Design the sequence.
């Protein structure tokens, strides 16, 4: 009987197999994205039965509010490179307003750049002491205030005064520009850690815009205003930055991290990649600023052009550098780096030769375009390697490398003052020629070291 009863029960259990599948409404598939009601029910502190399915994975953690605020303040601080570029390009464009296109006191011009370099050196050490005590925003505001004071002082000594009186003002300009640089490198730390190459390239674009804006402003107002008024007009830019930083006192504070120990910094700096990259910045910035510091005087004294024309050609040079870097950054993924480097070096060499041998303003214009296009691609070619070479990045460490590059940028015009004083203004364009060859060799060494380090 049990067997018969079992036989009667088994067909009944098998019936659902033959029946059509249940309606879709009777089956509730698991939701890939839980609804708000489900999320609230899961989050509520109520005792419920153990779930039959594993709980859905929690979403990726979102950045904290503090990190977002620091990143936003870093983006705003990145615009401070505009002020830095304006201050560093000031001397090359203001020299004709002081009358140096009329006489050949080249040694004094070299001393001007030397005192500007002294300010950069002092600011690098002073700002490292000040930043941990007062913070990034205070240093940015103080650097802007020093820039305003230095420019107002230079405006007061722009007349027929001894050149030695201008040395203190130029020292203040270098001091303020380097203070702003150091503070910005700390403020952009969150952005750099997210995308190093893009952050550095964006900083270079803002820096180039500051250089271009300064030269365009002085070239356009050269024939209308004296040097005193020009310097006061330029002083309005750091004054705007000073007011902006003071007004932002209630907003988020830019990020600041402690400086590394001397032992850790020296470990990073003793790596071959860091040394080669520092030398590259030293020579490359020296090439660029040898042209930027002496181009207006070279064009006016050798080619007989007007001072306004010389400053306009300087603006064209900065525009070629800026546009060339943007175009080079877009071409890095489409053209072989070795081929782009070869084109850059050849363009820089031909530009230096043409600028040394030309006798017309038109020839100088073509040479300037070649120089700008040649110099422009060097920095983006090496900026890509920063992300892989400096993984233990610290803003103070990279600012130190950048400051050494700026030292080369300002030492080159100083050396050109000695060269022009000994061999004449026509000999100053040979130094960038040898500098371009040195940059080419350093880029090849960086690539070779990178391949050897990868094994």
Sequence:
């Amino acid at each position: 009987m049990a067997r018969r009863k079992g036989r009667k029960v088994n067909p009944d259990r098998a019936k659902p197999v033959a029946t059509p599948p249940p309606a879709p409404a009777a089956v509730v598939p698991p939701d890939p994205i839980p609804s708000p009601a489900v999320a609230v029910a899961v989050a509520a502190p109520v005792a419920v039965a153990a779930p039959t399915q594993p709980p859905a994975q929690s979403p990726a953690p979102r950045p904290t509010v503090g990190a977002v605020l620091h990143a936003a303040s870093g983006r705003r601080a990145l615009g401070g490179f505009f002020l830095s570029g304006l201050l560093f390009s000031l001397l090359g464009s203001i020299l004709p307003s002081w009358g140096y296109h009329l006489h050949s006191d080249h040694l004094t011009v070299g001393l001007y750049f030397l005192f500007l370099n002294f300010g950069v050196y002092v600011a690098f050490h002073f700002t490292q002491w000040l930043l941990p005590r007062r913070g990034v925003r205070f240093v940015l505001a103080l650097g802007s205030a020093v820039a305003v004071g230095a420019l107002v002082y230079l405006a007061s000594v722009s007349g027929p005064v001894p050149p030695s009186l201008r040395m203190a003002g130029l020292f203040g300009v270098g001091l303020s520009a380097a203070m702003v640089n150091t503070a910005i490198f700390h403020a952009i730390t969150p952005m750099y850690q997210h995308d190093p190459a893009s952050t550095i390239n964006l900083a270079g674009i803002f820096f180039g815009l500051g250089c271009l804006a300064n030269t365009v402003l002085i070239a356009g107002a050269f024939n209308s205003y004296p040097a005193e008024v020009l310097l006061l007009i330029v002083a309005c830019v750091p004054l705007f930055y000073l007011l902006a930083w003071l007004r932002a006192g209630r907003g988020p504070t830019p990020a600041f991290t402690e400086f590394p120990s001397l032992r850790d910094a020296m470990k990073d700096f003793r790596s071959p990649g860091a040394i080669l990259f520092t030398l590259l910045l030293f020579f490359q910035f020296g090439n660029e600023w040898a042209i930027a510091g002496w181009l207006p005087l070279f064009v006016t004294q050798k080619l007989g052009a007007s001072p306004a024309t010389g400053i306009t050609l300087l603006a064209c040079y900065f525009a070629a550098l800026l546009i060339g870097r943007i175009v080079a950054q877009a071409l890095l993924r489409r053209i072989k780096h070795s081929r782009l480097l070869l084109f850059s070096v050849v363009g820089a060499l031909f530009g230096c030769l043409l600028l040394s041998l030309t006798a017309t303003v038109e020839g100088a214009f073509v040479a300037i375009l070649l120089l700008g296009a040649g110099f422009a691609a060097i920095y983006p070619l090496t900026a890509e390697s920063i992300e892989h070479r400096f993984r233990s990045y610290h803003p103070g460490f990279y600012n130190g490398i950048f400051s050494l590059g700026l030292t080369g940028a300002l030492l080159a015009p100083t050396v050109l003052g000695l060269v022009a004083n000994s061999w004449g203004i026509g000999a100053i364009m040979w130094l960038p020629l040898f500098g371009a060859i040195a940059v080419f060799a350093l880029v090849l060494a960086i690539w070779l070291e990178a391949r050897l380090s990868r094994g």
